[in-house]
Structures are given as structure tokens and as C-alpha cells.
Design a protein that fits this description.
The protein has about 300 residues and is an alpha/beta fold. It has a single domain, classed as Spore Coat Polysaccharide Biosynthesis Protein SpsA, Chain A (Alpha-Beta Complex), CATH 3.90.550.10. The chain is about 45% helix and about 15% strand. The chain contains 13 helices and 11 strands. β2, α2 and β3 form a beta-alpha-beta unit. α1 packs parallel to α2, α8 packs parallel to α10 and α12 packs antiparallel against α13. The relative contact order is 0.13.
């Protein structure tokens, strides 16, 4: 049976980006999808108007009461989406035309997978292909072998601890397997890594295609960019890696625990940021990042 795919967009700001995201959904080669825009913005006019302009019965609009914040808004998207398969498309990103069909095919081939995913191409604020070392290097961290990427058990957890190569909004969740498990609101940056590793520790399976079907936008207003600049993302990553190491060791997954404790990918990312900040003559920020690296 081919399961229907529901897309949900958590929206806070960026009307022009949202218009691009909506257009990318409407351009899907497989037209059997549904979409809900969950509006978490302070003022609700922008997203409501864009949905109304589409005039497409497959697209709904839902407004949150006030502003919930990122993680609660993501969880509401999971509740509001109408489909067995659910993708949380970020409002500033775009789908490639084959995304819906690719996720459906992957779901049909792996009926017990809790989530499906695909590689992403990085674009800039203007939508142009952008080189991003932190994103592009992750291609080399993806386990080799096979037409698909299957993550399960200790090998799957260890692979993610070497470097989280899964682009969070590319994930397509299978509602029946996910059950009541949701993103944890205490996190601001690592909520996706936390739920993925939690699922692996609970003996679930993640399956990915090797063909990019998603366009991930990096720009200054992006929450990840802001939290990288403030070093918040690294603070949370150090905490979650230690927690995962402890959980893995509790299951007897010693190799995964040691990989998590080593935090090699985090240290390399911080060192790269020091080099970049020196190159931009932002010596104060370079010093702050270096002190963080040395102290951890």
C-alpha cells in the first residue's frame, strides 16, 4: 500500500521564503499530498494570505494562539498533519520535485522504518547553490554500501555520533511507528539529534535515500546560524553527546559510547570556526570560540 504523505510547515517569519516553499510543494511530480501551514508568527496575516492565494484544497492554514516557539510548533505540526507519513518542511527551504514520490517509495520498501530521509543541497538567501563546509563534508560521513542508508542499532547510533548527516527537515516520519514520541521542548538546537538517537536506542530504524530531494537554505536569519554564532548550539551538542554516551554504555554499546564521548566532529567544527573568524578579522569571536573549545 502506498501511504499518503502530509507536509506541515511551521511558520514564524519570511513571507517570500514561505511563498517559495509553497510553490515547491505544488510543483511535486506526485500530486497526492496534503499540506498544512501552522502559523506561529506574532501577526497572522502573511501566511494566511499566501494560503488563500493558492486556492488549493490540499492546503490548509492553522494559526497558533500567540507564539509557541520552535519546538512546540514542530510538535503541533505533527499533530495537525493529515497523513500516515509526515514531513516538517521548514518555511525557508524548498523541496525538489521528486521529494514526495521518493519518500513514498522508500516507505513502501521499508514498512517498519520510523522515519525516512534524503540528502539535501545547500542554498543561500537568494536560492543559489552554496558551498557549505559543515554541510558538504557530511556527505563523507554517510555509511557506504547499498542503494539506501539504513541506520539501526549500535552501528546506526555510532554513525550519527561521528557526524549528524541527516538534515532534520528532510525527515519524513511514519506516524504509526513514531507514536506519541515528540521533540523535547527543553532543547533549542539539538532536538532533532535527540529524538533520532532516542529512537535508535529504542530499537527503531531510519532509512535514507542517497539522492538529494531537498534544498536547505542557510542565511543570517536562520535559527541554526544564529545559535552557531552565539555558541548555543555547541553548548547543547556537548551536553547531548555526553547524555547519548551514557545511554549507549547502559545498553552495552561501548563503541558508540566512545564515539559520542570523543566529540570529534564538534571539535573540528569549532576549530574551523576559529580559522574562519581569524580570516574575517573577528579576533574577539575567534578567541571566544577557541576558549570554548579548550575548556571543553
Amino acid at each position: 500500500m502506498v501511504e499518503r504523505l502530509a507536509l506541515a510547515i511551521p511558520y514564524y517569519s519570511g513571507r517570500a521564503y514561505l511563498a517559495e516553499a509553497l510553490a515547491s510543494v505544488c510543483a511535486q511530480a506526485d500530486p497526492d499530498w496534503s499540506l498544512v501551514v501552522v502559523d506561529d508568527s506574532p501577526a497572522k496575516e502573511e501566511a494566511r494570505a499566501l494560503v488563500a492565494e493558492l486556492g488549493d484544497a490540499r492546503v490548509r492554514y492553522v494559526a497558533n494562539a500567540g507564539t509557541l516557539g520552535m519546538v512546540p510548533a514542530w510538535n503541533r505540526c505533527l499533530e495537525e498533519a493529515r497523513g500516515e507519513l509526515v514531513t516538517l518542511l521548514h518555511a525557508d527551504d524548498r523541496l525538489l520535485p521528486g521529494y514526495v514520490g521518493a519518500m513514498k517509495a522508500l516507505a513502501a520498501a521499508h514498512p517498519r522504518a520510523v522515519a525516512l530521509f534524503c540528502p539535501a543541497r545547500t542554498i543561500d538567501a537568494a536560492g543559489r547553490r552554496r558551498f557549505s563546509l559543515q554541510d558538504d563534508v557530511k556527505r563523507f560521513l554517510v555509511p557506504r554500501g547499498g542503494r539506501e542508508v539504513v541506520l539501526a542499532g549500535e552501528p546506526g547510533l555510532r554513525a550519527l555520533m561521528r557526524g549528524d548527516f541527516i538534515v532534520c527537515p528532510s525527515l519524513c516520519w511514519r506516524r504509526a511507528r513514531l507514536g506519541g514520541r515528540r521533540f523535547e521542548a527543553r532543547w533549542r538546537q539539538v532536538q532533532d539529534l535527540e529524538i533520532l538517537t532516542r529512537l535508535l536506542l529504542e530499537d527503531e530504524t531510519l532509512v535514507g535515500t542517497r539522492t538529494p530531494q531537498y534544498l536547505y537554505r542557510r542565511h543570517a536569519a536562520n535559527a541554526t546560524a544564529q545559535q552557531t554564532e552565539s555558541l548555543l548550539r555547541f553548548e547543547e551538542e556537548y551536553v547531548i553527546f555526553d547524555a547519548i554516551a551514557a545511554q549507549a554504555r547502559g545498553r552495552g554499546w561501548e563503541r558508540a559510547a566512545r564515539t559520542a564521548e570523543g566529540k570529534l566532529v564538534l571539535r573540528m567544527h569549532l576549530l574551523w570556526r576559529v580559522v574562519c573568524e581569524v580570516g574575517r578579522l573577528r579576533l574577539g569571536m575567534a578567541g571566544r570560540t577557541l576558549r570554548f573549545l579548550v575548556s571543553h
